[in-house]
Design goal:
Strand content: under 5%
Number of strands: 0
Shape: globular
Distance between the termini: 30 Å
Radius of gyration: 17 Å
Helix content: over 70%
Number of helices: 5
Structural class: mainly alpha
C-alpha cells in the first residue's frame, strides 16, 4: 500500500510540475502582450545594469512580445513530452533562460527591495521575481526529465 501511494503521489507531482509549469509559462506569456506588462518590464530593465543597454536597440513593446513568444513556445514545448522528449527538452532549456533572467534581475535591480527598507523587505516587483527561483528549478527538472 505504501509503495502504491508513493507511485501515485510521484505521478501526480510530476504531472503537476510539468503541466503546471507549461500553463504558467503560457499564461505569463499571454500577459506580456498587455501594455501594462511592457511598462513594468521597462521600469525594471531601466534599473537593471544587465539589461539597460537593450532599451537603446529595441522598444519595450517589441521586447515584451519577444519574451511573450519565448514563454508561450517554452510552455507548449514542455507539455509536448508525451509526443517528443526532444521538443520538451528544448522547452525546458528556453524556460531556464527566461527564469534565469528573472533571477539575475532579482540580484541586480533596485526595484526588488522596498524603498527605504532594503533587505529583507521585498517590493511588489521583488515578490514577482521571487517565483523565478522555484520555476527555474521546475524548468531544470523538465529539461533533465526529457533526456
Amino acid at each position: 500500500m505504501k509503495s502504491l501511494l508513493k507511485k501515485i503521489f510521484l505521478m501526480v507531482g510530476q504531472s503537476l510540475f510539468r503541466y503546471g509549469l507549461g500553463i504558467i509559462l503560457i499564461w505569463l506569456g499571454i500577459m506580456k502582450f498587455k501594455n501594462s506588462e511592457a511598462l513594468q518590464i521597462e521600469q525594471t530593465m531601466a534599473q537593471t545594469v544587465l539589461f539597460q543597454w537593450m532599451l537603446k536597440y529595441v522598444t519595450i513593446y517589441a521586447f515584451s512580445q519577444i519574451i511573450a513568444w519565448i514563454q508561450i513556445v517554452a510552455g507548449v514545448l514542455i507539455m509536448l513530452k508525451p509526443v517528443s522528449a526532444s521538443l520538451s527538452r528544448w522547452g525546458g532549456a528556453l524556460a531556464m533562460v527566461v527564469f534565469l533572467a528573472g533571477i539575475l534581475v532579482f540580484f541586480t535591480s533596485g526595484v526588488v527591495w522596498q524603498t527605504g527598507y532594503g533587505f529583507p523587505e521585498l517590493s511588489r516587483a521583488g515578490h514577482a521575481f521571487l517565483k523565478d527561483f522555484i520555476l527555474f528549478g521546475a524548468a531544470a527538472w523538465c529539461f533533465s526529465d526529457s533526456q
